[in-house]
Amino acid sequence: MKQLYTVFSFEFMNYAGRKSFRFLTIGLIIIIALVLSLPRIGEAVSDAKEEAPQDRELTRILFIDGAEGAGGDLEYYNESLKYAGFTFVSEPINQSEAEKKVDAGEYDNAVIVTGPLEYIRIARNISMNDRFSYQLENAMLHRYKQLSFGAYGISDGEVDSILNASVTGTVRIIGKDQMENFFYTYILIFVLYFAIILYGQLVASSVATEKSSRAMELLITSTDPRSLMFGKVLGTSLAGFLQLALILGSAYLFYNLNASYYTDVAIIQSIFAIPLSMLLYNLLFFVFGFLLYAFLYASLASLVSRMEELSTVIMPVTFLCIIAFMIVMFSMSAGSVDNLLMVACSFIPFTSPMAMFTRIAMGDVASWQIALSVTILIGSTIGVGLLAASIYRLGVLLYGTPPKPNQIIRMLKANRAQRVMR
């Protein structure tokens, strides 16, 4: 146990103490803080520069009534579109003269109303974010309805109450709202995938580096190979978990500091509105799912003699993680997280950390299925850890071409037989 703790402490500090670790962590925290604080920063800047509403310059629009009163109502349009920053100015000129005034910059746009629901817009340039045509058409349509209803003796106030009527409904969800849970589920699954790929390969690189430099030969003379492997995996994993906790924790902190600015942003609210039960489930599947892959990465990395061989040896494990991620992503996008493939993947330890958590968050899962999936995952992680330790013990002194799976099995059987005979 003392050897395990020594290796664990060394590996943890070796990674957590790096400048790259600190710079990356602090840099991401600063970026998250800035991104989540943008509405507050924008408000402060706008407050400093904002003029009084009555002094704010409105966009000038040349208004020409070409329908002889059928669709032109200057006062109405000025009142309706003043909120959007437009003011209409009428001049008794023709289209050609209007084009010259717009081209000269006297007006930003010109509108020629040719009928109750028809108009010609003259613009020198139109930006990608231009909404004037949309706002003008809405105002014209509303005015047309007012005039049409007015022909039947209905007042403008009554028309507005009819046209602006809204439906109020209450939805009672007995099960899960997939859309509400989609965003935080997607983020957490992506974080697990990212952690396995990044930190798992970091574990593999650490093992392969020690072996290629033959430093491992010195280590195993004073340290039990099993303690060496478990200490290395657990130490690096804890450093990775700490980094993720600091980054995600800072995101949660800065969201709560600026929560009042996101009351109308459903996606942002959904990401951070994670129920405690879902957070605990995610933590459970995250820890054991990551350790399962990390043990595999460490054991396979011990079989290589050169760093150049590492990517080839660990590729099958990486593909397992990618396949699990793709299955879950496609199922989430299709809105079918309880399909037959996802149910099967919920009980396979290499896919269950992503598949079962997604089903718990967005699907309908029986309690016994959750218990069975967790039991299989924990048991498999322990079993893979012990198997990985045995492979690691054989691999540390094995040089040359990495052995094939059947060769590894024969070596493990031979080693076990020798230990029984002793």
| N-to-C span | 24 Å
Total number of β-strand segments? 4
Structural class: mainly alpha
The level of helicity is 55-70%
Overall mean pLDDT: 82
Structure described in brief:
68% of the residues lie in helices and 6% in strands.
What attributes characterize this protein structure?
single chain, 422 residues, mainly alpha, D-Maltodextrin-Binding Protein, domain 2, 2 domains, four-stranded mixed sheet, 17 helices, 4 strands, 68% helix, 6% strand, elongated
Question: If you had to describe this structure to a student in words, what would you say it looks like?
Answer:
Helix 12 runs antiparallel to helix 13 (310-334). The chain has 17 helices and 4 strands. 68% of the residues lie in helices and 6% in strands. It has a 4-stranded mixed sheet with strand order 2-1-3-4. The protein has 2 domains: 2-35 and 177-421, no CATH class; 58-161, Periplasmic binding protein-like II (D-Maltodextrin-Binding Protein, domain 2, 3-Layer(aba) Sandwich). The chain has 422 residues and is mainly alpha-helical.
Topology:
Elements: H1 2-16, H2 19-36, H3 38-49, E1 59-65, H4 74-81, E2 86-90, H5 95-103, E3 109-115, E4 118-123, H6 132-150, H7 156-163, H8 178-212, H9 215-222, H10 225-257, H11 266-272, H12 276-301, H13 310-334, H14 340-345, H15 352-362, H16 367-395, H17 405-421
Parallel strand pairs: 1-2, 1-3
Antiparallel strand pairs: 3-4
Helix pairs in contact: 1-10, 2-10, 4-6, 6-7, 8-10, 8-11, 8-12, 8-13, 8-15, 10-12, 10-16, 12-13, 12-15, 12-16, 13-15, 15-16
